[in-house]
Design a protein that fits this description.
With about 240 residues, the protein is α+β, with helices and mostly antiparallel strands. It has a single domain (about 1-235), classed as 3-Layer(aba) Sandwich (Aminopeptidase), CATH 3.40.630. It has helices at about 15-30, 80-85, 140-145, 150-165, 175-185, 210-220, 220-230, and strands spanning about 1-5, 5-10, 55-60, 65-75, 100-110, 170-175, 190, 195-200, 200-210. Strands 1, 2, 3, 4, 5, 6, 7, 8 and 9 form a nine-stranded mixed sheet that branches. Strand 3 (about 55-60) and strand 4 form a beta hairpin. Helix 6 (about 210-220) packs across helix 7. Mean pLDDT is about 90; it is low at about 135-140 and about 140-145.
Length: about 240
């Protein structure tokens, strides 16, 4: 596992660990936010048909408690969830399906979210006010001291490195505006590939390539590109 800001990030291999992931998702998606019906999961484990075709990642604290998770869905012949939820109309450089992953079920435990108004990703505190973030009046000094969203960035680094190892070049995401803007702030550039739909609330379908993200970070966020590449075999490093 890779460490970042006193948290540890890695792939979930065991069924025991995956059950803990599904339990966290149940607590957040079903009980806290009501995106899923709790009665559909009598075992209190939120999972779907795509979980068996996914790579699951966890963030754990120093006590080995799971405090965050995300999954990358692999091509399985079933299509991707985003393709069932929306019409993909503008993905002009779409590669073959085996080169694509859909990143979803990004979840941060309630106890690790920074502010009361933060959503399931614990990300709202990091969004500029002009991009739909919190609107409370805080000084520039306080805003500058706010740290990066360690759990989200650590999980996305795990996804990035796994994609490089599996030669997956492109990524889908269907999400609300807040997460889109927050990810963009930290160099994860996505392009809209369809119109917004009602899918756990209003969601917009996006796609990107890791090459686009690498080039954007190389130009604007070189420290974050170094973060993504940390301990990744140099044969996977981009060349500019």
């Amino acid at each position: 596992m890779l460490e970042y800001d006193k948290f540890y990030f890695g792939e979930a291999y065991s069924q025991e660990l995956k059950k803990k992931i599904y339990r966290l998702r149940y607590e957040v998606y079903a009980l806290e936010f009501g995106f899923e019906n709790p009665y559909d999961f009598p075992d209190k484990l939120e999972r779907d048909q795509f979980d068996d075709h996914s790579v699951h990642f966890v963030a754990v604290n120093e006590d080995n408690d799971i405090i965050g998770t995300v999954r990358m869905i692999l091509d399985s012949g079933k299509g991707f969830p985003i393709e069932h939820a929306s019409e993909i109309t503008d993905f002009h450089d779409r590669p073959i399906s085996k080169k694509i992953t859909e990143v979803s079920r990004l979840t941060v435990a309630k106890t690790l979210r920074r502010r009361l108004e933060d959503g399931m990703h614990g990300i709202e505190s990091y969004i500029p006010e002009s991009q739909g973030g919190v609107s409370d009046k805080i000084s520039a000094e306080i805003r500058e001291r706010r740290r990066r969203p360690a759990i989200v960035l650590g999980l996305y680094r795990a996804v990035y490195q796994k994609c490089k190892e599996l030669d997956i070049t492109h990524m889908y995401m269907i999400t609300e505006d807040k997460l889109f803007h927050a990810l963009y702030k930290f160099g994860f550039v996505f392009s809209k590939v369809g119109e917004p739909v009602q899918y756990h609330g209003k969601r917009t379908p996006y796609a990107t390539s890791w090459r686009a993200i690498e080039e954007h970070m190389h130009q604007h966020h070189s420290d974050l590109l170094d973060f993504l590449l940390f301990k990744l075999d140099k044969k996977y490093h981009p060349r500019f």
